[in-house]
Every structure is written in structure tokens, then in C-alpha cells.
């Protein structure tokens, strides 16, 4: 079967059946008769948390391999801890003291007698020192050799290697001279706009776009600051920014016997804050010949660094489908499930087998492409507030039912909390169908079935995005959200009256349930607190209930009937109610019109001091929260009266960061 063959649903099921038979055949724990690297993996430690830890554990359990979890103080009751065969506490919530603490994780591996460590993605997954430390301690690192991590982790080095290997590379500067003037000169010679990128890491960290020379130094400083925080290295490179590019990446896999294959491409173009939000495989509109060239270029890249395990080669693609090497992620990607869905594979199983010394389960000619898959990342964030991440409890969580063609990849349950200390992703919704239009229809249907109460999510935005005509047509690129902003963020409409009444009814019925439970537990049926009929003390046969619809306060008049039914009528709406003085710290601008913390985080940089004059929009300080850098800006022109936090200090949500007064008030 040709590598780019499309197979029917019947063929897909046969492909899966073949894979399952191969798995059963070799399934007596991971003991393989490999000629050079025979290893036994009976227990694996997952040096991660959340959905990826749970994902690895599911495959380990399927293969008869025991799993070991590590957890921070914030994660002691988490889903991945409950799923593991063993779990060990490794420190405080801050990742530097827990999930990034290499020595602690190695110590747990020894105590638990785990033969291997799976790093997941993020944290230590692309850390050269950790891969080396595992090797020194005789522990299998389920990933590539440390040399490949090092070479591909430094973008300037990786581009030089790719260029030498014949992989197309985009124009730019990848040199060692990191002076402002040198970088500025190369940006000028490359031609604006340019992309400033940290030479290490990924995930959109340390990445900024400079559209002109005027803003270059500000964007450079911001990129350096975030790179230093994320990767402890502030070196950057300069690349020509391709207008409306596509982000297309190829899944590759190598083994210890010199074999390397590609499992086709994924399109991850639609992004916010340079981070992916929705991915699909295969890439829409990509012809078989381009697909083959992409795959072959990716395999060249993998072989150039003697790659072993799962990796992703990322390309920038222009409107004519010319593509250029961007970077290589030397780990399992967040979006790997869409590749699994179109190829009928389990890439985590491949990782474990290859790490134990076995050859790649399938050769290139055996890998077939079937159908189309989408992955939507469901985040705790507010798309209407520049996708500001949020944290808090999941009071209610219901999902579409998972099946062979619908996967819910998550690490949380109803009642769990999205922690301020980590990434705000709640889940990945993955769907498959025979073609793109059918898969897109299934994605939207499944998103409608996802319901979360307790914090803001991006589900409605994902529905708006996946229903946009240009997205339906496959006309995707990295500027998609900004280009179609007005259609994706329409003005909020008033909630229909029937929905408001349903919400009020829900609250009344919840109140009834609570009072009924109190009556049963107390045994006092005459208690005024044991009645939900509307006849309690200070409650007449009618009552008012105020709901908040955006910024609108809506009064609902509720009538209690003798037969137990309710009458509901929408009352007047009040817009923009003043905030009481005792809550002024939680207002949009804080006391004295200053700036407040949008969430709990660490103050990274302070730009102003008392007495400074500022204009509306001027940067006041930079805050790091939930793995993101947030620039706090002046809400209006004025004079800084007081700066309440120093660099390195922790600020809670809604804390007043900077006090600002009008210039005429200061002069008085």
C-alpha cells in the first residue's frame, strides 16, 4: 500500500485490527529480542501532570506496564495521581520546586524501581541535562538522545544542521552576536516584518513580531525577558516573517536501528498568542506530491541528528505551498492524537517499544492515511478579554460520550480545580470522520455537548471559529483570528428571556434540593429553613431573583403556586451598576484609577516609579501568571502615586499594583 494511500472505513478497521494483532503477539510486558538494546520496561515513571500523564498511563496499562506518578502540593488530589499504580510527592506547587526538580524525579524513579521515565511534553521533556542524568543513572529516557535534544533545542544550531542536510530554511539571522545593534541591523537587512524567537524552547514562549524598526527594541526586550524566564537563556534569532503563513508540521519517528518514518502532516495554523488552539490532520488542500515532499524533508531532518522516538518537524508554508523549516520539537506533541486517528496508531506505545529497543512497528510503505481528524483545545480562558487564562473549580463538567471516533483527552474531573500554577488547558476534544467536512460537523456537534460551569472557557469561541466560512473552506493561516476578528467576536446579544427564566428555575430547584436535604437531615419539618415553597420567613408567595447577563443585572419575578409549579416573569434590567466602595479593589481600574492584577502571579519587571508621568496604554509592569507574560498598562493618563509591588514579588488577583492620579490632582 502506498504511503499516501487513502483507505475506506472498512480498510481503516482492518488496519486497526492488524495493529491490535501485532500488539497481542508481542505482549508479555516489554521484553524484546533486540540485538543491541534489549531492555525490560515493566514500570514507567511519568515526569508530568494533567492530561498527558493520564494519556501515557492509559497506554501503559494497556501494555501491562505499571505507572508511577509524581505530584506537587497543588496536585495531590488530581486525576493522574488517582490513575497511577504508585504516586510520590515531590514538592510545592511551583514547578521549579517540583516538576522541574530533576534530582527529585530521579530519586523517585530509584525508590519506585521504575526502569524508564516518560517526560510527556513541557517541563523536562526537552531538557538535555535531564536526558543525560537519566542515562548516567541507568534509567531509560523515553525520548531522543540528548545530542538530538541539544542540536534541535537551539534554533540557530538546528537551522544550520537543516540547511546542511538539504532541508529548506527561511531567511534570517541565527548567529552568536546578540548585541542590540547586530540584531537590529540583521532585522533591517532581512526586511520588516520580522519574527524574534528564543533560540531554545517552544510553545510560543519568547516569540514576538516586530512590524517596524521603531518597535524592534521593545519587542526584542520582551522576547528576551520571556525566554530567560522560560528557558534560562535569552538568546534570540531573527527570521523573515511570512505574511499569512500556514503552520504545518510533520510527525516523525525513529528507532535505535537507523530507521525513520513520517506519519503525515498536521495543520496547526489557527493560533492565539503564538500558541495552537485547533489542529487537524491531514492539512487541508495539501496535494499528495507536496505531502510526500514534506514527509521526506522531515525524515531528512530526523536522520540528520540520528533521531530516536517521536518528534515533530515544524514548517512555515506560504500561499504557494512552498515550505521552510522552522524548528523540531524533540518530544511528543500536544496534538499527536490527530495523527493517531488518521493512521490507526498509538504513538505512546511506539515510544515505549522503541525505547525498549524494538524496531519501529511499521515501515513507511505500511503507514496509510485514512480520513480526517480535528483536535480542539479547551482552555480555562476568556476569549473576549484577549484570551486571558483563568483558574478555579470545575463546578460542573459534562462531555460528549467518547467512542472509537471521539476522544476526550483530559486530566481533570468535575470538582477538580484548574490551578493558577500551571497551564489552563482543561481538555483536548479529538474527533475523526471519513472526510474533512464530516469531521468538522462532528467537531461542532461535540463542542455543543461540552458543558463547563465554574470558570470561563473558550468553547463558544471554538464553535464560532469552527463555523466560520473561511475555516470551513480550509483557508487557514496564523493570522486567521486577527483577520476575522469582527466575525469571531460579534457584539454580545442579550440572553433570550426563556434562557434567563430557565437559569432562575435551575437556581430555585437547586435551593429546593438543598432545603429538602436539610429537612431530612435535621428531622425538624417545622423549621423555616426546611421549606422551599416560598413561605419561609421574609419570603412571600412571590420573590425577586437578580441574574447577571454580562454587565446587565436582570430581575426575574418568581411566583410560587400551590400545586408546586412556578410562574416566572422577566423584570427590568439595570446596566452598569456602581461598585460598592468596599469592592473597589476588584473594579476594572482599581483604587485611584490605577492598575490591578488580572490574576495571581509574579511581578517580573517594573517600568515606573512614583512621580512618573504616563499616558493611557503605557506599560507599567510585566507579570508572569499561568505560564504567560502579561503587560500591565496604564488605564489612563496621569501621574504614578505609588507602586505597590517590586520585581520578584507575588501579587494576588485584583490586588492594586499601581496607584495613578490625574495630573491636576497631583499639582493640587
Could you explain the architecture of this structure?
The protein has 668 residues and is α+β, with helices and mostly antiparallel strands. Among the domains are: 171-240, ATP-grasp fold, A domain (Dna Ligase, domain 1, 2-Layer Sandwich), CATH 3.30.1490; 372-488, ATP-grasp fold, B domain (D-amino Acid Aminotransferase, Chain A, domain 1, 2-Layer Sandwich), CATH 3.30.470.20; 497-575, no CATH class; 584-667, RNA polymerase II/Efflux pump adaptor protein, barrel-sandwich hybrid domain (OB fold (Dihydrolipoamide Acetyltransferase, E2P)), CATH 2.40.50.100. It is 30% helix and 27% strand. It is built from 19 helices and 38 strands. The protein is globular, with a radius of gyration of 27 Å. Mean pLDDT is 87; it is low at 1-36, 534-540 and 573-592.
- Determine and state the CATH class of one domain: Alpha Beta
Can you tell me the CATH architecture of one domain?
Answer: 2-Layer Sandwich
Strand content: 25-35%
CATH topology of one domain: D-amino Acid Aminotransferase, Chain A, domain 1
Arrangement of strands in the largest sheet = 5-4-3-6-7
**What is the overall shape?**
globular
Count of DSSP H/I helices: 19
CATH superfamily of one domain: ATP-grasp fold, B domain
- Radius of gyration equals 27 Å
For the sheet with most strands, the description reads: 5 strands, parallel
Judged by helices, strands and strand pairing, the structural class is: alpha+beta
Q: Give the uncertain stretches in residue-range form.
A: 1-36, 534-540, 573-592
How many beta-strand runs?
Answer: 38
